[in-house]
Amino acid sequence: MRAWYEPLELDLHGLDTIEASSQTLLALYEFKNDEYNDTMDIIVGIGTGALRLTVEEILDKEGYRYSYLNNRAVIRVYK
């Protein structure tokens, strides 16, 4: 039986693309080493799409699979 755990979520609202890149890479490192979570949600919002594109580029480069939730405002990342 699995113990209760806190789902991983990263909210990038209000960050510029440089800050978002740094936070995303740090969160992905923690996600990779997390033995309890198989998914992580990254909230990019709708806005101009700059954060979404930045995160997509990082995920593609790092080899993560992902899908979109909430009208592409959230990116769900899979191990």
UniProtKB/TrEMBL annotation:
<feature type="domain" description="Smr">
    <location>
        <begin position="10"/>
        <end position="67"/>
    </location>
</feature>
<dbReference type="InterPro" id="IPR036063">
    <property type="entry name" value="Smr_dom_sf"/>
</dbReference>
<dbReference type="InterPro" id="IPR002625">
    <property type="entry name" value="Smr_dom"/>
</dbReference>
<protein>
    <recommendedName>
        <fullName>Smr domain-containing protein</fullName>
    </recommendedName>
</protein>
<dbReference type="Pfam" id="PF01713">
    <property type="entry name" value="Smr"/>
</dbReference>
